[in-house]
Specification:
The complex is a heterodimer of chains A (154) and B (65).
Chain A (H helix, E strand, L loop, with lengths): L1 H5 L6 E2 L5 H27 L4 H24 E2 L14 H30 L6 H27 L1
Chain B lengths: L1 E2 L1 H8 L3 H8 L3 H9 L6 H11 L3 H4 E2 L4
Antiparallel strand pairs in B: 1-2
Helix pairs in contact in B: 2-3
The chains are: A mainly alpha (154), B mainly alpha (65).
Chain lengths: 154, 65
C-alpha cells in the first residue's frame, strides 16, 4: 500500500511511460503547438490586418486549456495521487451520475423556455457567445447539483 | 437498505480506510454503506461479500422484505 501511494504523484505519469516531468513537458509543448496553429487560423480568418498580434493573443488564451486537455488524454489515471482504483462503484460515481441526469433535465428546461421566450423577442447574439454561456451554465449547474446531492446523501 | 457491514468490518478489525483501500473505493463510500445511505452496485456488493467471505444477504438487508 505504501509503495503504491509513494508511486503516485500530484500530476501522475504518462500511460505511454516516462515520469511526471516528461508528461507535463509533452502536454505543454503539444498544447503550445496546437494553440499556435489555432491562433494562426484565427488570425487568417478574422484579423488579416494584424496577424501576429491576433495569433499571439489567441494562442495565449488557448495554451493552458489545450495543455490540460493533452494532460487528461495522456495521463495514467492510476498514477495520480488520491485517485481511486474503482471510481465507478464509489458513491462519488453515483453522485456524478445523478448530477448529470439533473443537469440534463435543467438544460432541457432552460433551452426550451429560452427558445420559447426568444421566439417572441428579437435578440441577435453571436453563436460562439451563446454556446460559451451554455457551457459555463452547464458547468456551474453540475457543480451545484453535485454538491447538493453530496450534502443530502452524506 | 439495512447494513451489517459495520459489524463485519469491526469483527475483522479493519478500519474504514483500510477496507476502502482493499476495494479501491473512497472512505466516504464505506461510511455511506454502513449508514445505509448508499445501496451498493452488484459488483461492489460481490466484492464486499468476497472480502468478508459471506453472502450479500448477510451484509445487506432490504427494508421492504
Amino acid at each position: 500500500m505504501n509503495a503504491e501511494l509513494s508511486s503516485k504523484t500530484r500530476w501522475g505519469r504518462s500511460r505511454f511511460g516516462g515520469g511526471t516531468a516528461l508528461l507535463i513537458g509533452i502536454s505543454l509543448i503539444a498544447g503550445a503547438a496546437l494553440a499556435l496553429g489555432a491562433g494562426l487560423l484565427f488570425a487568417k480568418l478574422n484579423a488579416p490586418q494584424n496577424p501576429v498580434f491576433a495569433t499571439l493573443i489567441m494562442a495565449a488564451a488557448l495554451w493552458p486549456i489545450l495543455s490540460v486537455i493533452f494532460w487528461v488524454l495522456l495521463v495514467d489515471r492510476n498514477t495520480v495521487r488520491g485517485s481511486l482504483r474503482n471510481p465507478e462503484i464509489s458513491i462519488e460515481g453515483q453522485w456524478h451520475d445523478e448530477a448529470v441526469v439533473k443537469v440534463f433535465q435543467d438544460l432541457m428546461i432552460i433551452c426550451g423556455l429560452g427558445a420559447a421566450v426568444f421566439s417572441f423577442i428579437n435578440v441577435q447574439a453571436s453563436v460562439s457567445l451563446v454556446l460559451t454561456g451554455v457551457l459555463l451554465l452547464t458547468g456551474a449547474d453540475f457543480i451545484l447539483r453535485y454538491f447538493l446531492i453530496k450534502r443530502a446523501q452524506s | 437498505m439495512q447494513s451489517n457491514l459495520s459489524e463485519y468490518r469491526k469483527d475483522r478489525g479493519i478500519s474504514q480506510q483500510a477496507l476502502a483501500d482493499l476495494l479501491g473505493v473512497s472512505r466516504q463510500t464505506i461510511i455511506s454503506l454502513e449508514k445505509g445511505r448508499y445501496d451498493p452496485s452488484l459488483p461492489l456488493a460481490f466484492k464486499l461479500a468476497a472480502q468478508f467471505n459471506c453472502r450479500i444477504e448477510d451484509l445487506f438487508i432490504p427494508e421492504d422484505l
